[in-house]
Write a structure and sequence with these properties.
By secondary structure, the chain is mainly alpha-helical. It is 42% helix and 5% strand. The chain contains 19 helices and 6 strands. α10 packs antiparallel against α11, α10 runs parallel beside α15 and α15 runs antiparallel to α17.
Length: 473
């Protein structure tokens, strides 16, 4: 199949893996609801609003933000490990023995593309007039960008290593006959940033943290540019969010309550969270919620514990240390002491929401980008402004390479259990220094397992998608 620089359009086969092993041939001839062309589904502004609600719901599934993304980003790094007393979840990630037919990998892939299709139905709808329509389309652009970003940094090499290497198939419209090949990492990043620009220019109304706002889109763009290595754009965008958005950092006294609160902020509040994926008492993943993989309460799995090395990074005056509880894993053969994640303490009813982008991260983006641009005083200012709201006894004064290491350390401390650590170490081309709690030892940068395998179920139905090196059927 001839390649060019234009985004590919998705075939139904890219979603067929959602039903692999459970479908008859005649079912595959039907048009799945997740890939209904926009002309069939979105004809009015209320139609578009309903479709957008469904698109946000796609993010909530446990195979995306409901659990998988936060877990992947930390268990593949040095923040989490699977307890010796476990229910069998995430063992292959703990041991770096992931295979091409791993159910979590295929679920992440197919549910991500299903969500992209929902976003595409909104973006490509012929309806284009009215402020509400413009807002809805802007949010859909941002969701598509967010999902593509998580896919490309999981299944492709870091942009900072090889932007010309295979990324993921770009999907921008519905075509039931297409068999899209993988676009390059650079092409995917270009589409992501274009979509986020569209979102920033289209979204006008702030409706609260459960939906993507103008400045949430700009924050995501700053993050993507940081991962891309475009530090000037990352710095400019992060600085605009900090100075123009009206959002404020959650302070030391309120941090514990911030994480206990299970409801999103409304339009009248702008504290810390720029965007979060919401689970409530009705719409949630039940036992598969993120909180349940950490909690030691009741019937929760509680399989994942944090590493001692992460816990010991926090000073005694650091309020973030209280988000890890030193206790006992209450299962036969469980750890004692056990370092228990308490960042998501609500495990019944209205479950904890999943933070996608927070102002704290924007400060860290500004700090790292400023450092890389040679603006040491700016870097220290942004870093210490955040740290002052976490640990009153800590203030950074170092310069040179040690300052960068301290910024990365604060990223690890601040964003623990939110799904970024593995991807940060990849973009930094750093080894993963796993400790004795892990069965693997260090995972060196350059190890083929630092890029996830394309699901075999996808390759089976689309021969134009090639597997990542090192993985075999």
């Amino acid at each position: 199949m001839k390649r060019n620089n234009k985004p590919y359009i998705i075939s139904f086969f890219l979603l067929a893996t959602l039903f692999a092993g459970a479908c008859k041939k005649d079912f595959l001839d039907q048009k799945p609801y997740t890939s209904v062309p926009s002309v069939d589904a979105v004809n009015t502004a209320p139609d578009m609003q309903i479709a957008l609600t469904g698109t946000y719901a796609g993010l909530r599934g446990y195979l995306i933000y409901g659990r998988t993304i936060p877990v992947f980003g930390d268990i593949l790094a040095d923040n989490l490990f699977v307890s010796a007393a476990n229910s069998g979840r995430y063992l292959s990630f703990n041991s770096y023995t992931i295979v091409v037919d791993d159910a979590d990998i295929s679920g992440f892939w197919t549910n991500s593309y299903s969500t992209i299709l929902r976003a595409n139905n909104i973006i490509n709808a012929s309806l284009n007039t009215g402020d509400d329509v413009k807002q809805y389309k802007g949010e859909a652009y941002a969701i598509r960008a967010l999902v593509n970003f998580n896919l490309v940094r999981s299944f492709g090499k870091p942009y900072t290593e090889d932007p010309a290497s295979p990324g993921i198939p770009l999907v921008v419209s519905y075509d039931p006959k297409a068999l899209p090949a993988r676009n390059t990492v650079e092409e995917v990043y270009t589409q992501i940033l274009s979509d986020l620009d569209q979102a920033y220019n289209s979204i006008s109304t702030y409706k609260g943290t459960a939906t993507i706002s103008k400045y949430a889109a700009l924050s995501l763009s700053a993050k993507v540019n940081l991962y891309k290595g475009d530090y000037q754009k990352a710095f400019t965008q992060a600085k605009e969010v900090i100075t123009q958005s009206g959002f404020s950092l959650v302070n030391r006294a309120d941090l514990a309550g911030y994480w206990i609160t299970a409801t999103p902020q409304g339009a009248g509040s702008k504290t810390e969270t720029l965007f979060e994926v919401v689970s409530d008492a009705v719409n949630n993943n039940g036992a598969n919620e993120l909180a349940a993989i950490f909690s030691q309460q009741g019937s929760a799995y509680g399989d994942l514990l944090t590493t001692r090395s992460l816990y010991e990074l926090y000073g005694n005056d650091d309020v973030r240390k209280k988000l890890i509880v030193v206790g006992v894993r209450p299962k036969i053969g469980g750890e004692n002491p056990a370092f228990i994640v308490n960042k998501y303490p609500v495990v019944t009813g209205d479950y904890n929401d999943k933070k996608v982008i927070r102002l704290s991260e924007v400060y860290l983006i500004a700090a790292e980008a400023a450092y890389r641009l040679g603006q040491t005083s700016e870097a220290l200012n942004y870093l210490n402004t955040l740290v002052a709201q976490r640990d009153a006894s800590l203030r950074y004064t170092v310069t040179g390479p040690q300052l960068l290491q301290d910024i990365i350390k604060e990223r690890r401390k601040e964003l623990a259990f939110e799904g970024d650590r593995f991807y940060d170490l990849n973009r930094l081309k750093a080894d993963i220094e796993r400790t004795s709690e892990s069965p693997t030892g260090p995972i060196k940068y350059g190890d083929y397992r630092r890029v996830l395998p394309i699901p075999q179920s996808e390759i089976n139905v689309n021969p134009n998608v090639k597997q990542n090196l090192g993985y075999t059927k």
